[in-house]
Amino acid sequence: MINKETGEIRFTSTLNVSPKTVFGVAMALTDGLQRSVDDMKNGWKWIRLKAVESDTAQYHIGLAFNNGNLQLLDFTIDPKDSDPSDYGYENWSAEKEQNRLKKFEQWLTNEIGQQRSFDWGKIQAVYDPKSSFSSIVVHYTKTQKTTGANNI
């Protein structure tokens, strides 16, 4: 799912992101998905995707663009057959969220090994105390404008 050489992440057969992702292409290719768009009015725009399903998992994805280029990506991974209420505020606990963080760390290790910094940026599992949730966060440091059929 994660290409360590290029930074490309493939969520589904038609949804992948990389340091080459640009906002306009991302908007076109996510048109049929459940999404929201936030323009921060300072050069930053967010596309938030809910319930993106693959064969085995469900993802919630946030894409942050600065002046049209993808700079930050955060996502969560839940088993496809999981109950969405297991991960909502109603059933939240610090213990559950710490366990989730450990699952994300293990998932990363299974996907890419121990390395977390690359030529294209870095990836890590993090707990955000402001939101009280864990996710996997990618910071792309080398971005370039390009377009491609499935490359958002």
Structural topology:
Blueprint: E1 9-10, E2 16-17, H1 23-29, E3 35-39, E4 44-53, E5 57-66, E6 69-79, H2 94-112, E7 117-118, E8 121-128, E9 133-140
Antiparallel strand pairs: 1-2, 3-4, 4-5, 5-6, 6-9, 7-8, 8-9
Brief rundown of the structure:
This protein has 152 residues and is of the alpha+beta class.
Describe the protein's architecture and organization:
With 152 residues, this protein is of the alpha+beta class. It has one domain. Helices cover 17% and strands 38% of the residues. The chain has two helices and nine strands, in the order ββαββββαβββ. The chain has a seven-stranded antiparallel β-sheet with strand order 3-4-5-6-9-8-7. A two-stranded antiparallel ribbon has the order 1-2. A hairpin with a 4-residue loop joins strand 3 and strand 4. The longest helix is centred in the C-terminal third of the chain and has 19 residues. The protein is globular.
The H/E string reads: EEHEEEEHEEE
Strand content: 35-45%
Distance between the termini: 15 Å
The overall pLDDT average reads 89
Shape: globular
Properties at a glance:
alpha+beta; seven-stranded antiparallel sheet; 152 residues; single chain; globular
